[in-house]
Design a protein that fits this description.
This protein has 232 residues and is mainly alpha-helical. It has helices at residues 2-18, 22-31, 36-53, 59-79, 85-108, 114-118, 121-132, 135-144, 160-177, 181-202, 205-231. Keywords: Membrane, Transmembrane, Transmembrane helix.
Amino acid sequence: MALALLKLLMAHILGDFFLQPNSWVIDKEKRRLKSGKLYLHIALHIALIFLMFCSLTIWKVALIIGFMHGIIDVTKLIFQKAQTKRIWFFVDQFLHIAVILICWQYIYHSSINIAFYLQSDQLWLFLLGALFLTSPAAIFIRVIIAKWIPSKASTSLQDAGKFIGILERLLIYLFVCTNHFEAVGFLLAAKSIFRFGDLKEAHDIKLTEYVLIGTLLSFGIALIVAMAVINI
């Protein structure tokens, strides 16, 4: 019955991301319960479930998911503020997926054996490596290159460098652990084109060297951690 779960998830993704125009989102946020687009959005999700299964026997699941989708969306519209929109987006999606999983498990008596995976040493080792490559690795790199921090004021986005570093380390980690070393070279080349092109225009040798040291440290740490994880 895993196919049923995939179809339910497909219906959700199509309904929430592909077939929901921005004008619907704006109208829902502005008019909330008075928005006709809200009820059209709910009806669309129900229709998509019928379409995915090409059967009317799925009507109970479709109506339950559609009803709960509406409850979750209404809750988000009522309680979200401008400053909490990002948080509510993730809460909203988490609850939608949770409802789909519960319905799938209840109707088809199926389950995902999470306990089996959580008992795997390799999984915990992989998660430990990934966790280290986020903030801990960023702190290590910042401490190492602290004495070379350029005095020139930065015009970049707040904490952008930190998050770029975290993402690049996690990508390298994933590439190496899945034996796709060629993708690491592609990532380094892509970053060089975008990053060092700007540095060249700045004509600041110290800044260029600072960024280069940070990048090589970031890549080096990610490679070492990944190699350690796959060889333990």
